[in-house]
Write a structure and sequence with these properties.
about 280 residues; 10 strands; alpha/beta; Trna Endonuclease, Chain: A, domain 1
């Protein structure tokens, strides 16, 4: 095919890459045969100026027909945005990922600083160290965390660290501040964080160790990835503090509580089993 451009969510144009599309489809776990069929099926619909959203929707629909778990994994990045509008479900997801890595965690902790009190989204402990983690959840994919955010977070961390480390009742030291987001970091943010020792985590940062990779590695998919649930049902489940597919498997009674029929419950749980 001739070279053509696509329009990203930000409104920016870029040359379409078949390699990028293939890589995103591979992330879903789909076989090479299915990936090739999806690409061949979409090709006739390509035109210069097509939106990335249109390509995604078509690929998602084709994967869903083939295997719902492929579609769920393919939609993971977008499913994170559906955890909103508040940041709490995202904080719970971050906490769950850290637990898989051997951290003890608490969500929503109020800590005194040397000068003022601070609310920490996730407090994590491992070995002799404690980490203060700030989660920045955004509902728009094109939002980039600029330099103001790590400047603010690092100043808060320093205030907490001074008070924490001089408290004789603490058996750990306040080691590091973290900034975790479901969007991106600007170049200045990354540069500053490296300089002051602030740890960054986003969808694809650090490379090959971002949130997306970790969710896949541990199977900690948010319930918003499930293709069989309606948006309203996902919202009700989240309101009942069920954030992960794994938690839904452990507490299936929530489905009956929100009024889902026995037949649909069986279908939902079948998708849950396939996904995790």
């Amino acid at each position: 095919m001739e070279e053509f451009s696509i329009v990203k969510k930000s409104g920016r144009k870029e040359v379409f890459s078949f390699d990028k599309l293939k890589n995103s489809l591979q992330r879903s776990g789909a076989t090479d045969g299915i990936i090739n069929l999806v690409i061949e099926d979409i090709k006739p619909e390509f035109y210069d100026g097509i939106s990335s959203k249109q390509i995604y929707k078509k690929a998602f629909s084709l994967l869903k027909k083939s295997n719902r778990s492929y579609a769920s994994k393919y939609s993971l990045k977008r499913a994170l945005f559906d955890l909103g509008p508040t940041g709490y479900p995202f904080e719970r997801l971050v906490s769950a990922l850290l637990k898989q890595k051997g951290y003890k965690t608490k969500v929503g902790v109020v800590l005194p600083g040397e000068y003022v009190t601070h609310e920490i989204d996730v407090l994590a402990e491992k070995g002799e160290n404690t980490y203060a983690i700030e989660c920045k959840f955004h509902t728009k994919a094109n939002f980039s965390n600029n330099i103001k955010i790590p400047l603010y977070i690092n100043s808060r961390f320093i205030d907490i660290q001074k008070q924490w480390d001089k408290n004789p009742n603490h058996t750990t030291r306040m080691k590091q501040g973290w900034l975790v987001t479901n969007t991106k970091f600007t170049t200045d943010t990354i540069k500053y964080a490296k300089g002051v020792g602030l740890r960054l985590l986003s969808w694809d940062y650090p490379k090959d160790n971002g949130i997306g990779k970790n969710i896949d590695a541990y199977g900690l998919y948010p319930i918003t990835t499930l293709t069989i649930l309606a948006k309203s049902e996902k919202k009700q489940i989240i309101e009942n503090d069920i954030i992960l597919v794994k938690e839904l498997k452990e507490t299936p009674t929530i489905l009956r509580k929100i009024g889902i029929s026995t037949t649909r419950i069986q279908r939902i749980l079948a998708e849950v089993e396939t996904l995790i």
